[in-house]
Fold this protein.
Amino acid sequence: MPVADDPTRQEGSGPPAKRRESGRGWNWLLVVPFFGTFFPWIYNTRSPEFIGMPFFYWYQLVWVPISVILTIIVYRATTGRKP
Amino acid sequence: MDVKWVVLSVFIFLFAVVTVLGFVASRWRRAESLDHLDEWGLGGRNFGPWVSWFLIGGDLYTAYTFVAVPGLLFGVGALGFFAVPYTILIFPMAFIVAPRLWSVAHRHGYVTPADFVRGRHGSATLALAIAITGIAATMPYIALQLVGIGAVLKTMGIEGEWPLVIAFVILAAYTYQSGLRAPALIAFVKDALIYIVVLVAVIYIPIKLGGFDDIFAAADKKFSGSEQPTDGLVLADAQILGYSSLAFGSALALFLYPHAITGLLATRSRDTIRRNMAALPAYSFLLGLLALLGLMAIAAGVEPLTSASGTPDTNTVVPLLFDQMFPDWFTGVAFAAIGIGALVPAAIMSIAAANLWTRNIYKEYLRPNATDAEEARMSRLVSLIVKGGAVAVILVLDPQFSIDLQLIGGVIIVQTLPAIVIGLYSRAAHAWGLLAGWAVGLAGGLYMLYDTPNPVTGKEHFGGAQYALSNFGIDTKVTLYTGLIAIVLNLIVTVLVTAVVRMTRGAEFPDQTSPEDYGVEAGDPGVEPLSIEGEHAPAPTGRG
């Protein structure tokens, strides 16, 4: 993981090292949390409740793990192997 | 109020531990010397994913988080929960944009956001504007950290301002000594304490209060019994746009703060940043749970202490809740968590502000031939001055308005977005357009803040960062986040002035960067320690 320690890429001549990030289309997945949370009209209600918590609160909390999972998917998909 | 000795002893013990850590940090991952800004101001630019996670997390989730957000929920309910969508929106955006800044900054040795603006847009004046904005937005943010410590001290029964001053003198001393390594090391302790306290609090307190049913019922009773139209368990219709625009606008602002950028640039690689943007939201979940403590305080019947002006100080709600619920020794741990949670960001912020001064004002205008060692010495000195300024701010202004101070800072800092974020992608905007947009956005933003009364506190001006659309002649009660209106103004002016400059064939400024610079990773050619325009000697070895 410590990329800087990779000795194969220390030599300075030639074209810039091969891009280790690819598949930029995956980045569009990152728009999803925006649609989930930017429109409070969707979730500005009390019911359904969950363990006594109004919908407004637990719905937004649920989006935290969802955004984490999406970001991890995008990270994995856009990080290629080291050349 | 009597002094709580057990609580105070635990607090002082933990505070002493991090003080020792702060001084010892100067030997951690030691460089040959601290006589270079990359070492003192960026910790050697060599923090890996774990250290960065603690450092950036400690940097972004501040005492403001622990004290003011629950305080807001205590006061108005649903509106205060904006902090959750706010932190959800930040990281996907930063995941895309921040690695580009890392790459170009490492290729050219940029230490501050204004360094990048200088190199990219070729205008020292624009860079000066960005630097001043950064410093102006950071000062109240540091002051806000003091409010966090102050709330805790107050709850422990300690009167007067001197303990606050002592805490900051100690902080200033080890920041001066160790630079960014101090908050990076202390962040481990801070986070460990915070996680323990929050997990215990959100499990133990609801059980003691009879579950979330009872908590929300008590909050509902309070809000429906109040006269204010702005509080409630869910948002009023007129608040909905204000809520989401505040969350979105604050998210845009966060990674433009100099201290956030300092945290980013201190990382070892692009990959470190990308990993962190996926891992940092773990803190957001914590923040959401923390926010609910404000509602738990309602159910527990907490009465906030009054501030100097006689109004209830909602910043004391969380400390009081802990004090009421926990045994004394654990209250001490919880208070230390809040106090130390304020020290980490305050240290990073003062370093970031000092770097801006040194790089973009002192070296640019006052002493162009400053050596690396002189730069580092200057930054260390200025970090002391910045903290002194923050203490002065807090002694002069009513700490009650801490959250508004932070909102004002957000309105100001978001005006640097076009120069930095558009700049990371293209040169389509001309430096003069960006400068004009910045000026108009700033003036408009400040005017709107001035024009915002707060009926609850009776303030006529600077009553908050929600601007009523009725001011524009629209017949509605809807409000929008001031920063978002100001940034739209900024963008419009940027586009118009750029068009005029290009049509009249105004001067084009040189661009120091090239397109490949924005995608390079550590170890690529040119991303070993480098310096701006080769004017420095190469940095000491032992890095990378």
Q: What stands out?
A: Residues 1-19 of chain A have pLDDT under 50 and may be disordered. DSSP finds two helices and no strands in chain A. The CA atoms of residues 27 and 58 of chain A lie 26 Å apart. The helical segments of chain A are 32-37, 55-78.
